[in-house]
């Protein structure tokens, strides 16, 4: 293998720094390209594996990061820079003229932007865990400080994920601002981040809409994509909603010919697992079948597309997914085909307080019961104080994603699937519902939805929703979640404010996709709670809430609240 540095010219004269890995024998081969903000020193393993697979690998510092010239703005220039880099690579003597795209998270998102440019030499793309702005973060229209934590890690030209992004620094800084009556986002200024209009939209314009258009290819560009895509995510990946958002646009807009050659894979992985294929998330161990050499699969697929070789065995159909619990891979022609029906569970209540030990019920028939109340108090710091506590036994190997601290946001994203701390510690800011123990196995495949019959006392509220399996042992296993500002419950639609003091139904449809079989004796647990966390504080500067607000959840036989659960066939 050879490693060479290169300086790749862009159309405006800026030059991007690259590491080029090629076979030593000097033959012309297809190339794989990645443009990253995360610097190049950690990429040698990828280079070795791609070259061993008969491909060249070109990894490039994004504009303004590492040793590349120019000014960094997340994905701002990546589409055009990607086009120019692809064309440069295709003309090099070690390349056979074919280029494929590779990468995950940020470098999954920017692949969709490059695909929209249709570079002539581009032949395939494989975005993993592809972030989608205002779909993953912010999510559901809830203001979110996570992006500033991420920017602190890529501030300047180096990487600061173990220092400036560390939760142990950020959470106290946020709490200090809140206790001083300042906007929570002021914490970002302590890390040297200039809060310009582009950054403030994560707070003041957090819902998906036209303000985020610069983060996406247009519908016309997606429709014109003329190369196949292999996209990968996991049921515990923070960016699963974004991955599926990109895929849904592609499915609706791209040609039948291109779609027929494309694949979606969802394993039981977290964000890092969409690269490693490792069969463990936090404290949750999956079966041996869950461990997949995803690099080898991608190399085989690139060779299938660019060199006409056989397709990887895992890609039996266009959509391949892993069902936890039975520990099996299954395949369907489409994502939608994996869901074969739904079952309804109605929210029921009993007299007395509601918490994890005195919960409401998920029943097969609607029933009359007393109301429950969710209280949202911006001044209540107990959830944030819980997030200041380190998560016992969890290694802080990645300050951004590892659950080294308790975190509502990380639990919502599935990163910490056995941590039920924010269900156990509701402090009056949420409700819990349990089903009776299952008498037969239930295979959940798809995206749940929830209709709540409520009486709010304000015109908006932010809610965290979590769905768990509770095993006979008492262990709770994360399955799905949603974050939602209720006025933004229709994705991309006009805000629909609540009517204070009036009975009304809100339907929440953007739960995370999941695939798990619950065994006999397991129970379903639904948690509905206020968000009010360090990275998503119930901050009057962000939410407009002027004080304590509440939502009464009604339990009416004639007009029930209902959890709709997608199910998949046993195969």
Topology (elements, then pairings):
Elements: E1 2-9, E2 15-22, E3 29-36, H1 44-52, E4 56-61, H2 78-90, E5 95-104, H3 106-115, E6 122-128, H4 146-153, H5 167-179, H6 186-189, H7 197-204, H8 219-223, E7 230-236, H9 240-253, H10 256-260, E8 263-270, H11 273-276, E9 280-281, E10 284-285, H12 294-307, E11 319-323, E12 328-332, E13 341-348, E14 360-363, E15 369-376, H13 382-387, H14 408-412, H15 421-424, E16 430-434, E17 442-446, E18 449-456, E19 462-470, E20 476-485, E21 504-508, E22 514-518, E23 523-530, H16 540-543, E24 549-555, E25 562-567
Parallel strand pairs: 3-4, 3-5, 5-6, 7-8, 8-11, 14-16
Antiparallel strand pairs: 1-2, 2-4, 9-10, 11-12, 13-14, 13-25, 15-24, 16-23, 17-22, 18-21, 18-24, 18-25, 19-20, 19-23
Helix pairs in contact: 2-3
Q: How many domains in all?
A: 3
In terms of quaternary structure, the protein is single chain
Give the low-confidence spans. none
CATH structural fold name of the largest domain: Rossmann fold
CATH architecture label of the largest domain? 3-Layer(aba) Sandwich
**Could you name the CATH class of the largest domain?**
Alpha Beta
Shape descriptor reads: globular
Taking all Cα atoms into account, the compactness measure Rg is 24 Å
Helix content: 10-25%
